[in-house]
Write a structure and sequence with these properties.
Elements lengths: L1 E7 L3 E7 L5 E8 L2 H14 L6 E6 L5 H8 L4 E7 L10 H14 L1 H5 L15 H33 L14 H9 L4 H33 L2 H6 L7 H11 L8 H7 L4 E3 L8 E4 L5 H17 L1 H14 L1 H22 L10 H11 L10 H10 L23
Parallel strand pairs: 1-4, 4-5
Antiparallel strand pairs: 1-2, 2-3, 6-7
Helix pairs in contact: 5-7, 5-9, 7-9, 10-13, 11-12, 11-13, 12-13
Length: about 400
């Protein structure tokens, strides 16, 4: 077995090939042009013995998909491992990175070939074609929504610059009446030019979003995990598909806390000896999934009484921010159980006595009006001399004995 470490770049790859004994037998740079890659594959076949295969390790980047597919097309390729980028080094070159990857692969070859975890190495799950298509589709929708929001904000900027927000025909901004109003309003030449271009962009984003949503609906109906997640209050088609394609297959996570740890919802720590330094959540997982779960719990807290009761109990002790993260972590654990068992969302029943106690605690007590400085001075002037030292404990009609001089 040979062990190949590859540092991938846009125009070239840097490789470091080791044999079973750990010695480097090939180290070079190869262009990413297809003829050069074909020559490199021939060179790999010459370096290997008869029927000898190799294991390749590649760092994750934004364009590794085509290269991983090309490696898997080689009959001599036994396995391709994707890993998160290693820690920063004070002396970094492409050759050093490829050398470090091949050395890491050779040292941990037995555990990696068995599919076991290696401390300090975060391997990346390689999704299948359907999961990859769902990821790109949901990411495309997120980008379109962001661009539409940016365009609408620019429209608001023009209106505020001319103090025209008060003349809006409807309270909601994204309506047909508002669009007609924006097209017909009187503006100066430069603002009119900018407004016309923004309206064209706005229409384009809406048309593209409609096309993406239509495609997403068909993908959603073919995804069983997404349909289960859609039974959670506040989870629509987009959220369900975006989460399902990024945590599948669910068999990777034996427990709910495993999924929460994968999504970066568990607290970190920097402890040494007897000193314990607990930290905030690690945020090592998908940013998109964390943000979507944060949106889901806003609806969940309004519609599920059991979750709301549990949230309020933590909120009184630790504050609202920690309580929200705790609900996010618990929601991730519930998602893991739903997908593992194939069960839809079931709202827990809230005990009537517990619910009544929580409602009493939620009632806002009337605040006492604070005394201003003039009112406090006026009150002091109207007080009698006998009560100047405090409220009297004497009843009405009792005589006050004078102190002897």
């Amino acid at each position: 077995m040979l062990y190949l470490g590859i540092d991938l770049h846009l125009k070239q790859i840097t490789v470091s090939l080791r044999n079973e004994g750990g010695d480097v037998v090939l180290r070079r740079q190869v262009s990413t042009r297809w003829p050069k890659l074909a020559e490199f594959r021939t060179q790999l076949a010459e370096a290997a013995a008869d029927d000898e295969k190799y294991v390749a390790v590649v760092e994750v980047c934004g364009f590794h998909d085509w290269f991983v597919k090309w490696l898997r097309g080689d009959p001599r390729c036994h396995m391709v491992l994707l890993v998160q980028p290693l820690g920063r080094s004070a002396v970094k070159t492409d050759r050093r990175d490829a050398h470090a990857l091949s050395e890491l692969l050779w040292i941990n070859r037995e555990r990696l070939l068995r599919g076991e975890r290696v401390h300090g190495v975060r391997t990346v799950h390689q999704p299948d074609e359907d999961q990859q298509a769902d990821r790109r589709l949901t990411q495309l929708r997120e980008r379109l929504v962001w661009r539409r929001t940016q365009t609408i904000n620019q429209v608001h900027k023009i209106l505020r610059r001319n103090n025209l927000e008060w003349d809006r025909p409807t309270k909601t901004f994204q309506t047909c009446k508002v669009i007609r109003w924006l097209r017909s309003m009187q503006l100066n030449s430069m603002d009119r030019l900018a407004m016309n271009q923004l309206l064209v962009q706005w229409k384009l984003w809406e048309e593209q979003l409609l096309e993406v949503d239509t495609r997403m609906t068909s993908r959603f109906l073919a995804n069983r995990d997404a349909q289960l997640l859609a039974t959670i209050p506040g989870v629509n088609t987009y959220i369900a598909l975006a989460i399902a394609c990024r945590i599948a297959p669910i068999e990777r996570f034996p427990h709910g806390r495993s999924l929460a740890n994968f999504l970066g919802l568990t607290p970190g720590c920097r402890s040494s000896g007897e000193t314990e330094r607990p930290g905030s959540i690690t945020k090592v997982g998908s940013r998109m999934v964390r943000s979507l779960i944060a949106q889901v719990i806003l609806h969940l807290l309004r519609k599920d009484g059991a979750v709301r009761t549990w949230y309020q109990r933590i909120k009184r002790r630790r504050g609202s921010r920690i309580a929200r993260v705790a609900v996010m972590r618990r929601t991730a654990a519930i998602m893991q159980r739903m997908l593992s068992k194939g069960e839809p969302w079931r709202a827990e029943k809230v005990d009537s006595a517990t619910s009544e106690t929580e409602n009493k605690r939620r009632r806002v007590q009337p605040r006492q009006r604070r005394k201003t400085v003039p009112s406090a001075l006026a009150e002091r002037r109207t007080e009698s001399p006998s009560s100047s030292t405090g409220s009297s404990s004497l009843l009405t009609g009792e005589e006050v004995a004078q102190c002897p001089v």
